[in-house]
Design brief:
With 684 residues, the protein is of the alpha+beta class. Strands 7-6-5-4-3-2-1-8 form an 8-stranded parallel sheet. A 6-stranded antiparallel sheet has the order 9-10-11-16-13-14, with helices on one face. Residues 1-34 have low confidence and may be disordered.
Length: 684
């Protein structure tokens, strides 16, 4: 290893120990020093692509070639993406009868892996491959490498492979450390530099032993393309900051950005959180079908620079209160990155101070908004109005002598009045005026001049300010708030609409600033009159812990339509809603419904492997902000329980499937034979 990198690694380890406040756990010795890491590879988190999240086993050599081409043509290679990785299903079901080696699948990879590696290398990129530390891979379409470690490692090296993802399926219950160390030794023996990814799902705490075995290790189960999954994996990975550093990284799984199951705002949060946690950035979407918005997220070089910072420190949690997270990450050269992450369902204003971040006292600080791509000056409060599921990332520099040249930081946001207790303000029934508040606060040292903010409503809507919309001067620490009354046109059909707030101001140095705050509004459809199967009724909003909520079947996996007949402890149901905790569905009643009657329980679709727990959940019915029924904790061994919820006078129905204290694994919750009873006034 070059002397500069050796010194950098040593300094990074020292700074990581002093910065991260979590107590270090024991790290048992698991391997002979001659083969142990570090070895100078993966000094920053690996960046690249893996096909599994987008295509699963539907993979072939042309996709890999196309992806390499797109890396170059789109600018992703220049942004730092380097590895083009093949996941499961690339090999024939049987090894070569003579040599015992892997054989590339003759239909999917007719040219062979060596030719594909040569093509990828010709683009200035690197090739990754996959197998499992078991008798078969997870898809069970090809052999695993258990007891074939040296042969397979040498095969990969001979082919020119640069990265190995080593999964954990079909492992015969052999000790994880033993299996993964054996492959490490085999890879080292080849003499080829191969980045080694331990995909052990966090089952045996690989963060405690992985530093000497691999370059990165999965800390979680598999990610899915849902907001619930991203937040869940973030919460599992973020406490492990003390174990990450140059050459040894926590891995909360690949990116889902661009796969379609989340909003662009949620994808920006996903990308921001992974970058703050110094996680590997492996694109998991099909780049042949990507949108400009997805490429903009994946190609944000300012956020990537936080992930790839040479200091190699994973962000720590400064504060978490009510789903308002403040993460802080020290960077090489003395800068500090701060992420303000709003997990909640409503816009929230929060932040941190220079003192909390440990910054030296200065007249002002220069910070860079890494998504707005604009610099500002701050008197020492680094805050923002963060929309639901949004993340703001600042890069803060202390001691900049020309701070006064930057415009003052504006804490600016748009918040909406809730239509009923417990219901997000983004749900706006037709025919009901509502209020929206625009608020700007000056967090700089210098004044904001010619301040004005306005709301732009969709065509046909009316946005009426109920107070002043501007001021000539907004002094440091000053605040301007304006309430608007928003009126929707009569007869507006159900759908989604954008409400946009715009702020314009000048700085004392003459710079002009324009900021935008947006909210997507949902005009819901009222439920039908009479008695209805809730499984056939259109909801206003929905969230689900695994895949989509299924109508009249259980939830199977992450893909739509993969459930089965709803079955609770042997009793089957033909109608209902299949959910997976944590789940929430909101229906617009318009005050015209009387009750919801349903059976609830844990579906019989469970992991075939024996486990101590196979699903527990709590089922609740809410009428606006009032709990109308509660099942208590239901387990996979329980019969269905019947719930009756009184909905009289309620504007909204909210049904919730919540995980009990043992977490969310296998919490498939069925709302079986649910009957919603409404009066004639609810129909259209």
């Amino acid at each position: 290893m070059p002397a500069r990198l050796t010194l950098l690694t040593a300094l990074s380890s020292l700074l990581l120990t002093s910065f991260v406040s979590l107590a270090a756990g024991p790290a048992p010795a698991v391997a002979a020093p001659a083969a142990s890491l570090p070895d100078g590879l993966a000094l920053t988190p690996p960046m690249g692509f893996n096909n599994w999240n987008a295509t699963g086993c539907d993979i072939n050599e042309q996709m890999i070639r196309d992806t390499a081409d797109i890396f170059v043509s789109s600018g992703l290679k220049k942004a730092g993406y380097e590895y083009v990785n093949i996941d499961d299903c690339w090999a024939e079901p049987q090894r070569d009868a003579v040599t015992g080696r892997y054989v590339a699948h003759h239909e999917r990879f007719p040219s062979g892996i060596k030719a594909l590696a040569d093509y990828v290398h010709g683009k200035g990129l690197k090739l990754g491959i996959y197998t499992s530390a078991g008798t078969q891979t997870c898809a069970k379409t090809m052999p695993g490498s258990l007891d074939h470690e040296e042969l397979d490692a040498q095969t990969f090296a001979d082919w020119g492979v640069d990265y190995l993802k080593y999964d954990n399926c079909n492992n015969e219950n052999r000790p994880a450390v033993e299996r993964y160390t054996k492959m490490r030794d085999a890879l080292k023996k080849t003499g080829r530099p191969i980045v080694y990814s331990i995909c052990e799902w966090g089952q045996n705490k690989p963060w405690e032993w992985g530093k000497d075995v691999g370059h990165l290790w999965r800390t979680t189960g598999d990610i899915t393309d849902s907001w619930t999954s991203v937040v869940s994996l973030f919460k599992l990975n973020v406490p492990l900051a003390q174990y990450a550093g140059p050459g040894h990284w926590n891995d909360p799984d690949m990116l889902e950005v661009g796969n379609g199951g989340m909003t662009d705002r949620e994808y920006r949060s996903h990308f921001s959180l992974w970058s703050m946690m110094a996680a590997p950035l492996l694109i998991g979407s099909d780049l042949r079908k990507t949108t400009p918005a997805t490429l903009e997220i994946l190609g944000n070089r300012e956020v990537i620079a936080v992930d790839q910072d040479a200091l190699g420190v994973q962000a720590r949690v400064l504060r978490d209160a009510g789903g308002r997270w403040v993460l802080v990450k020290p960077l090489a050269g003395g800068d500090v990155a701060v992420a303000l992450f709003n997990e909640s369902e409503e816009t929230a204003t929060f932040g941190a101070t220079a003192a909390e971040l440990g910054l030296p006292k200065r007249p002002s600080y220069v910070l860079r908004d890494l998504w707005a791509h604009r610099s500002f000056e701050s008197s020492g409060t680094f805050s923002a109005s963060v929309p639901a599921h949004g993340t703001v990332v600042y890069r803060i520099k202390a001691g900049a002598k020309d701070w006064w040249r930057q415009p003052p930081l504006a804490e600016y946001g748009l918040s909406l009045a809730a239509p009923a207790a417990g219901i997000p303000g983004t749900i706006t029934p037709a025919g009901r005026p509502f209020t929206a508040d625009l608020t700007v606060a000056n967090r700089g040292r210098t004044p904001m001049l010619a301040v004005r903010h306005t709301i732009a409503a969709p065509d046909g809507w009316k946005a009426e300010p109920l107070g002043r919309t501007g001021t000539a001067v907004l002094a440091p620490g000053g605040r301007l708030s304006t309430r608007y009354r928003i009126t929707l046109p009569a007869g507006l059909p159900p759908g989604r609409h954008e409400l946009k707030g715009t702020l314009a101001y000048r700085s004392a140095a003459g710079g002009k600033v324009r900021s935008v705050a947006t909210e997507e509004l949902i005009v819901p459809e009222r439920v039908p009159s009479g008695a209805s199967n809730l499984g056939d009724v259109r909801w206003a909003t929905v969230r689900n812990g695994l895949g989509p909520v299924e109508r009249n079947t259980s939830v199977g996996g992450a893909k739509p339509g993969d459930g089965r007949t709803m079955t609770i402890n042997g009793k089957t149901y033909a109608t209902g809603l299949g959910t997976h905790a944590p789940a929430e569905l909101i229906f617009y009643l318009d005050g015209a419904c009387s009750s919801l009657s349903t059976d609830v329980g844990i579906d019989d679709e469970r992991d075939p492997r024996p486990e101590p727990a196979q699903g527990t959940a709590i089922f609740q019915i809410w009428a606006d902000g009032t709990k109308a029924a509660d099942s208590g904790v239901r387990t996979w061994q329980d019969d269905a329980v019947h719930l009756d919820g009184d909905l009289r006078g309620a504007s909204f129905l909210r049904i919730v499937t919540d995980g009990s204290p043992d977490g969310y694994r296998w919490d498939r919750g069925d709302w079986a034979a649910p009957t919603l009873t409404c009066g004639q006034g609810a129909g259209r």
